[in-house]
């Protein structure tokens, strides 16, 4: 891993030609009746779900998808056979679920795992390169693990800090234009364009030219914001995420709302 992009991102071709020693691979999906169920996964991958594995029950100012509690996250990570020094590869079950995969990356890095990489293009890219798959129901083996989550290895902020970033013009909104125009945190700026296209991260040159000087980022419920945090990480920059995001901000009727 010679540069920030390769520290956080790996292509299917790279993973096939230069296998990572003893990685744990996580297939990341979402709980939604509107999305077709996946029928296959990368051979040996553990099947995970954003809402079940990388979030806690949401309510009020915590937002719709708060970060998981330490005990439940520790139990899940151990169940996948991940130890403190285990290389982890996360990937999206479908291109439109890349934000679920970056949320998994964010949560695992936040919890103290130092080597977590996103598979660029997800399952589709893996298949296109001839990578092996198996039925989604196939159980994956797990080695014994003593991992204990220790939150705080990636920065997060609360609503008050988000307001401060907004007042200084340093808060980025990762939602779409319609949502932003309908109401946003005062002072927030819309991320100019999505950082992923068809599930693949845009080039470093494109990201450098498109993304402003980093400060902090939010979205609707702390998922899409992690795509932006991930993009900055591949440029060697760390930005805090307001995980409660718009769902937490609007839970307090006294917080101001700005409209375009």
From TrEMBL:
Sequence ranges assigned to domain Rhodanese in this UniProt record? 38-135, 171-258
Does the keyword Repeat feature in the UniProt annotation? yes
Q: What are the entry keywords? A: Repeat, Transferase
Query: According to its UniProt record, what is one Pfam family this protein matches?
Result: Rhodanese
Indicate the transmembrane segments per the record: none
Which Gene3D superfamilies does the record associate with it? Rhodanese-like domain (3.40.250.10)
The name under which this protein is listed is Sulfurtransferase
């Amino acid at each position: 891993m010679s540069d920030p992009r390769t520290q956080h991102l790996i292509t299917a071709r790279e993973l096939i030609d230069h296998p990572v020693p003893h990685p744990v691979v996580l297939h990341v999906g979402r709980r939604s009746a509107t999305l077709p169920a996946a029928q296959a996964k990368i051979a040996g991958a553990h099947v995970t779900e954003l809402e079940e594995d990388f979030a806690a029950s949401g309510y009020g100012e915590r937002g719709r998808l708060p970060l998981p509690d330490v005990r439940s996250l520790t139990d899940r990570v151990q169940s996948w056979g991940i130890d403190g020094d285990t290389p982890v590869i996360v990937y999206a079950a479908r291109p439109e679920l890349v934000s679920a995969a970056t949320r998994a990356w964010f949560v695992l890095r936040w919890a103290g795992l130092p080597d977590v990489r996103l598979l660029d293009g997800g399952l589709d890219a893996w298949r296109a390169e001839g990578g092996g798959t198996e039925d989604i129901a196939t159980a994956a083996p797990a080695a014994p693990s003593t991992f204990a989550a220790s939150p705080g290895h990636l920065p997060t902020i609360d609503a008050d800090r988000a307001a401060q970033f907004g007042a200084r013009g340093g808060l980025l909104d990762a939602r779409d234009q319609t949502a932003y125009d309908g109401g946003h945190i005062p002072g927030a700026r819309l991320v100019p364009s999505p950082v992923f296209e068809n599930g693949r991260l845009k080039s470093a040159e494109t990201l450098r030219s498109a993304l402003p000087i980093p400060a902090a980022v939010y979205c609707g419920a702390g998922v899409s914001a992690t795509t932006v945090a991930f993009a900055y990480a591949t440029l060697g920059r760390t930005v805090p995420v307001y995980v409660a995001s718009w769902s937490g901000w609007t839970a307090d009727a006294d917080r101001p709302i700005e409209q375009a």
